[in-house]
């Protein structure tokens, strides 16, 4: 479908929708929500329900939705994916993420290179396809579905060592997938090469955003913590007047949930647009935006000034405490003696996300995203292919039908599952950081920033009760990296001209649908198998822990 240019002046007249379309759309939305709840209750993997509904009711099988509606659902679903990534950044333990950067890079590199190497060996060495076809298949299967991975992790697991490693590795896979997506179209055109800018630009832009965001976060945090009593008197009077302008909840205007929602929307939009137009992944931008807000609005600036205990006690209870300053004119010149009241909330941005965005993400946008993945899978072409089809201009004369794509697809899918599961071995062999090694200069600086003004420190990193054992962490990391999803589909569609090219065992001028169908088999089986495996694994842990307790 061609891209729609904005602004659009095409006006669609209002008319009642056709009853079949209305009923099918209503039934589709209901099935998405109910199947998500059912899959969550049975196998602890809520995303599998909408994924299967998208496959069954999509264009390849039932054909319940027209193309225009499918495109709308793809757009809405991608908003859901961005919000899933944003939520993950808000709940990430940044010091833990920094402390395990080496392990994350090793896991990501293994998850990228091993599928490509095994694809080259199987496609070219065993099945006789060309090197370009083998590379295209491996490029599509080296990615990790970031949305699927994050949807399966609870907020507590995201704050563990394995959760931090998993999110970082999946993000790196996404950036590499973007680079490969830029290379594939050039390889598909025989006469054109690959511009070096296509390869270097996403990498350099990602590094620039990755290094620039912490600097921006540090500057904004210092600005919020600035002692405004040191500014000239007229400005100080204006500042104190602004302090008096509060919401009825008693929280300062900046930390009000509705203001935080506006901050979230503006920051997320800026980072998503900036990273996309600069040349890297918009999902990477969404993660950086959430990490920025998580750092800015955590720590000392969550401890609001309170001029009197009585006024704080009589105010309306909220998650965020706020100062109470008398409206007397003399208070404009001399602020009262500060008394700190520490908020119990993790982060005002997280509070706003939970209040306003989570209710539409979990039952609506999230299921639509996974259903859009299912509907985009060409399931109808997975069981029969026509090798040795000849090209007659723009037409394709099909050759004899073949069903070997089924067993080849299953074999390749199992091989790709094992390739990603091997990533979990890094948890077993990587040395666990000791206390002295863990509290490096950067982490000590973070904990110093997290210290509240009264001297009480945050909970120690090693006291997280959700931290799984090393064996459990290895199993979780390996299974969670298996799902491919949206990035694999994008790369596979871009690589389709390469995958449909002639194999080395047949003459030039023919086309073979089998390699593309094998790749789709692997994407489908790995996405469903990875989500199912993680859901069953977490469910078994929960039942075992309940028995022990």
Gist?
This protein has 549 residues and is mainly α. It has helices spanning 19-43, 48-57, 67-90, 94-99, 101-126, 131-141, 146-152, 155-158, 161-188, 196-224, 233-244, 257-278, 282-296, 309-314, 330-333, 348-376, 404-421, 425-429, 435-438, 441-450, 470-480, 486-494, 496-499, 514-548, and strands at 303-305, 340-342, 389-392, 395-397, 510-511.
Structure description:
There is one protein chain. The protein is an all-alpha fold. It folds into two domains: 19-216 and 350-548, Na+/H+ antiporter like fold (Up-down Bundle), CATH 1.20.1530; 217-349, no CATH class. It has 24 helices and five strands. The chain has helices spanning 19-43, 48-57, 67-90, 94-99, 101-126, 131-141, 146-152, 155-158, 161-188, 196-224, 233-244, 257-278, 282-296, 309-314, 330-333, 348-376, 404-421, 425-429, 435-438, 441-450, 470-480, 486-494, 496-499, 514-548; strands at 303-305, 340-342, 389-392, 395-397, 510-511. The chain has a three-stranded antiparallel beta sheet with strand order 4-3-5, with no helix packed on it. Mean pLDDT is 77; it is low at 244-250, 300-345, 435-445, 450-462 and 502-509.
Looking at this protein, list some descriptive labels.
549 residues; mainly alpha; Na+/H+ antiporter like fold; three-stranded antiparallel beta sheet; two-stranded antiparallel sheet; 24 helices; 5 strands; globular; sodium transport; transmembrane helix; Cation/H+ exchanger transmembrane domain-containing protein; transport
